[in-house]
C-alpha cells in the first residue's frame, strides 16, 4: 500500500454492517428463485431441508468469511494471501472470488434491468392490457429485444456505480440504509394485499404443506446450492464487507441475523407470489417466466393492477441493487487494496468493464451468437437439446461450480490451515457465543466440505 493511500473505512455502526450484509444477501435469489424452487420441489420438506442447509452449512461459512475479512482488513485476494503468510495458492482462491463477482454482476445486471423496465411499464399502466396474450408475450418480446436489454442494463450499472463510488459509509452503507427499509415496507404492503386474495390458503398449503413424496435427492442438493447463492457466499462478498467491521463486533450473531432475515424474506416472497399465481389460475412451476411472464397477467386483471405491478417490480429492483452493490464492492475493494487505485477510478473503470462483459448476456434472448447460437454450442455439455445460452450458462457455472468452490476454499482454509490460536481468538472476540467454537469448527471441518463435494458430484452429473 502506498503511503498516500487513505485509511480503510469502517461501517458507522453494527446496524450499518447488518443492513449492508442483509442487502447483499436479499436479492433476486431470495425473492424470485426461492419461491420457484420451493414450488418445484414440493414445498414443506424442501423448506425444512433448506433451513437445515442454511443453519448447518451456510452460517458457519458466513462466520468464517466475515472473520477472515475482519482479521486481515483486506478484500479476498489480500485476505487469503496475508492470512496464509503470502501463499500464492491460497491467493488464487481469492482470485476466483473476485472473478466470480465480476461475472455474476455482469448478468445479474441484465435481470435487474428487466425489473426496472417492468417497474416502469407498470407505473405507466402499460401492463394493464385487456388482452392477456399480449401481456403473456411481453416477456418473450422483451427477452429478445437487444435495445431494451442493453438500455436497462446500462441504466442499472450506472446506478450501482454511483452507489459504490460514494465509499463504504457514504455510498454502500448509506444506500443500504435506504434500500433495506424500503424493501421491507414494500414486502409488507404486497403481503397484506396477497392475504386478501382467494388463492392465499392454497398458497400456504402449497409452500408449507408436507408433500414428502416430492422431495428428491436432487432437490436436497438444490437447496444446498441455493443456500450459497442466496447468502452471497463463496466469492468473498462477506470477506470484503467483513473487512470494514470493527474488531469487537459480534460476528456470530450478525451472521445469524443476516441469514435469518434472508430466510424470512424468502418465505414471505412465497406468500406474495403464490397467492397471485393461484388466484389467477397460473402455473406455480413456471421457472424464470413465473415472475416476468405470469405475474403481469395477474396484475393486468387486478384492481389497481398498475400500482401493484409497479410496487412488485420496484421491490425486485431494490433487492437486486443492494446485492449488486456488494458484488461491485468486492472487485473495487480488490483494486484499491492490491493496485492502489483510488475508489473513484476503480469504480468507474471496473464497472465499465463489467457492463461490457454483460453485453453478451443482454443479447442472450435473441437468435444470435450469444443466444440460440451459444445454446447449440453448449448442447453437448448438458445433454441433447439442453444447451444453455450465454446468460444461463454463466449463471449455471457460477451457482454450481464457482461459488461452491470458493466456499470450499474458505472452509478448508479457516478450518485446517489457519493457526488454531488465532482462529479461536478471532471467533471469541466480541462474541457471546465463544462456547460454541467447537461446533463451528466441527461443521467447518467435516460437514461443510462433505456437503460441497456432494453439490459438485450432483452438478457434474457424476451420480
Ligand atoms: N445473494 C444475492 C441474491 O440472492 C445474489 C448474490 C450472490 C449477491 C453472490 C452477491 C454475491 O440475489
Write out key terms for the chains shown:
463 residues, mainly alpha, Amino acid/polyamine transporter I, 20 helices, globular, binds phenylalanine
How would you describe what is shown here?
- With 463 residues, the chain is mainly alpha-helical.
- It contains 20 helices and no strands.
- It has helices spanning 14-25, 28-40, 45-72, 76-83, 88-123, 132-144, 146-165, 168-195, 200-208, 217-230, 237-242, 251-279, 289-301, 305-339, 343-357, 359-362, 369-382, 390-417, 420-428, 437-459.
- Helix 7 (146-165) packs across helix 8 (168-195) and helix 7 runs antiparallel to helix 15 (343-357).
- The model has no long low-confidence stretch (mean pLDDT 88).
- Phenylalanine is lined by residues 24-25, 27-30, 104, 229-230, 232, 235, 237, 323, 326-327.
The figure for the number of domains is 1
Structural class category: mainly alpha
Largest sheet, in brief, is: none
- And the CATH topology? Amino acid/polyamine transporter I
Over the alpha carbons, how many angstroms does the gyration radius reach? 21 Å
Kindly, what is the distance between the CA atoms of the first and last residues, rounded to a whole number of angstroms? 48 Å
Question: What is the percentage of strand-forming residues?
Answer: under 5%
Heterogens: phenylalanine
Give helix and strand order, one letter per element, not per position.
HHHHHHHHHHHHHHHHHHHH
**Proper CATH architecture:** Up-down Bundle
The poorly predicted ranges are: none
Tally of contiguous helical segments: 20
Shape: globular
What percent of residues adopt helix (DSSP H or I)?
Answer: over 70%
Chain-averaged pLDDT: 88
CATH class: Mainly Alpha
Amino acid at each position: 500500500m502506498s503511503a498516500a493511500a487513505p485509511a480503510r473505512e469502517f461501517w458507522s455502526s453494527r446496524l450499518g454492517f447488518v443492513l449492508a450484509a442483509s442487502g447483499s444477501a436479499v436479492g433476486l435469489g431470495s425473492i424470485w428463485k426461492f419461491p420457484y424452487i420451493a414450488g418445484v420441489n414440493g414445498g414443506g420438506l424442501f423448506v425444512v431441508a433448506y433451513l437445515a442447509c442454511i443453519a448447518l452449512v451456510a452460517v458457519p461459512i458466513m462466520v468464517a468469511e466475515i472473520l477472515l475479512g475482519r482479521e486481515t482488513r483486506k478484500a479476498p485476494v489480500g485476505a487469503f494471501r496475508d492470512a496464509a503468510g503470502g501463499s500464492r495458492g491460497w491467493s488464487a482462491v481469492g482470485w476466483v472470488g473476485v472473478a466470480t463477482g465480476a461475472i455474476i454482476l455482469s448478468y445479474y445486471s441484465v435481470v435487474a434491468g428487466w425489473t426496472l423496465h417492468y417497474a416502469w411499464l407498470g407505473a405507466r399502466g402499460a401492463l394493464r392490457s385487456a388482452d392477456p396474450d399480449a401481456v403473456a408475450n411481453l416477456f418473450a418480446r422483451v427477452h429478445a429485444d437487444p435495445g431494451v436489454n442493453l438500455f436497462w442494463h446500462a441504466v442499472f450499472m450506472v446506478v450501482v456505480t454511483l452507489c459504490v463510488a460514494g465509499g463504504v459509509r457514504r455510498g454502500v452503507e448509506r444506500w443500504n440504509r435506504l434500500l433495506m427499509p424500503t424493501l421491507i415496507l414494500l414486502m409488507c404492503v404486497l403481503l397484506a394485499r396477497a392475504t386478501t386474495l382467494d388463492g392465499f390458503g392454497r398458497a400456504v398449503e402449497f409452500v408449507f404443506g408436507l408433500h414428502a413424496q416430492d422431495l428428491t435427492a436432487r432437490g436436497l442438493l438444490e437447496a444446498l446450492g441455493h443456500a450459497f447463492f442466496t447468502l452471497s457466499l463463496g466469492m468473498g462478498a462477506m470477506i470484503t464487507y467483513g473487512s470494514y467491521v470493527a474488531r469487537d463486533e459480534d460476528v456470530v450473531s450478525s451472521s445469524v441475523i443476516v441469514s435469518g432475515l434472508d430466510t424470512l424474506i424468502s418465505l414471505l416472497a412465497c406468500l406474495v407470489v403464490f397467492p397471485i399465481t393461484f388466484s389467477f389460475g397460473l402455473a406455480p412451476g413456471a421457472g424464470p417466466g413465473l415472475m416476468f411472464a405470469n405475474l403481469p397477467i395477474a396484475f393486468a386483471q387486478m384492481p389497481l393492477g398498475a400500482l401493484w405491478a409497479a410496487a412488485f417490480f420496484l421491490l425486485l429492483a431494490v433487492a437486486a441493487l443492494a446485492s449488486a452493490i456488494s458484488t461491485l464492492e468486492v472487485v473495487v475493494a480488490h483494486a484499491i487494496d492490491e493496485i492502489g487505485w483510488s475508489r473513484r477510478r476503480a469504480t468507474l473503470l471496473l464497472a465499465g468493464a463489467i457492463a461490457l462483459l454483460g453485453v453478451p448476456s443482454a443479447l442472450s434472448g435473441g437468435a444470435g451468437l450469444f443466444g440460440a447460437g451459444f445454446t447449440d454450442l453448449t448442447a453437448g455439455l448438458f445433454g441433447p437439446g439442453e444447451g444453455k445460452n450465454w446468460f444461463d450458462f454463466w449463471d449455471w457455472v457460477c451457482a454450481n461450480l464457482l461459488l461452491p468452490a470458493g466456499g470450499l476454499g474458505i472452509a478448508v482454509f479457516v478450518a485446517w490451515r489457519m493457526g488454531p490460536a488465532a482462529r479461536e481468538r478471532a471467533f471469541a472476540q466480541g462474541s457471546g457465543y465463544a462456547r460454541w467454537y467447537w461446533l463451528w469448527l466441527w461443521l467447518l471441518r467435516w460437514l461443510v466440505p462433505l456437503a460441497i463435494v456432494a453439490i459438485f458430484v450432483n452438478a457434474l452429473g457424476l451420480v
